[in-house]
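Mods, move this if it's the wrong board.
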Amino acid sequence: MKSRFRHHDLLRLFLEIARHPSFSEAAASLNMTKGAVSYQIKTLEAELGMVLFRRTTRGVALTGEGVKLKDACQGHFDGIETQLSALRGKLARSLTVGVSTYFAARWLSPRLMTFMQAHQDVQLRIQPMIEFSDHEVQDIDLAVRWGNGGRNNGVVTPFLPSPAYPVGNSDTARLVDELGMERAISQLTLLRDRDDSNAWSDWLETTGLPQQTRHDVLIVPDPNVRVQAVVDGQGIALMDDLVQDELEAGKLFRLSPAELSDYGYFIVQPSYAAVTEPARVFSDWLLSQA
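Not the wrong board. Structure tokens:
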């Protein structure tokens, strides 16, 4: 069984050297010494068992075998370059957007087909995200986040105003009606999206109600799960108008007219990610849909 040829790097070097009339010129072009060029060619010739260059007083010339090898290598390397160019073009038009499943299902999905029809050359990937941690965002080109625009490492563009207000299930709504919000909230578990969230503190400050220092706070990062937790009576949460279906169906109830008016959805261009044309086009489209 014949051993496989393993010096493909030498073939690429051979192709470059073959473009020049002498090893001296090839060495200068490749930033190598003439001795290094000569050694690499001798190594390749020994591996192949054939002479590739004929040495002359004026320089070097390809032998018949050298010409055939040059033509074969040129065709294969040209094909590789063509495929690489095609891949670069495909990748250049690809776009990964990080969003919560809550936003994707309730706002983005019903509108997304209009973008796909208008920009069929963009290969779009919607990446579900929950905490938008540094680890999560490292592979995305663009993100859509809910909040007040803080805690974002990148360029933040206000996109969809969506004030936050407290919601609960029917039992919770009756408790608030009976006791009033100030007394009722002291008996209710506050659902948050993360441990260091200031949303409830901001809302209480807006309403003038006392800050809550209790420890019965439930952290539910996934907003879809948080909605269901409220429906199931596990506590109350600050949500937005994307729960309109649950409000209309009587599964959720708005507990107060007070709201965080500066909350909503923001387009975040990560600081590490280059602003590509697909990212710009998608950002513009999002703004047009708001």
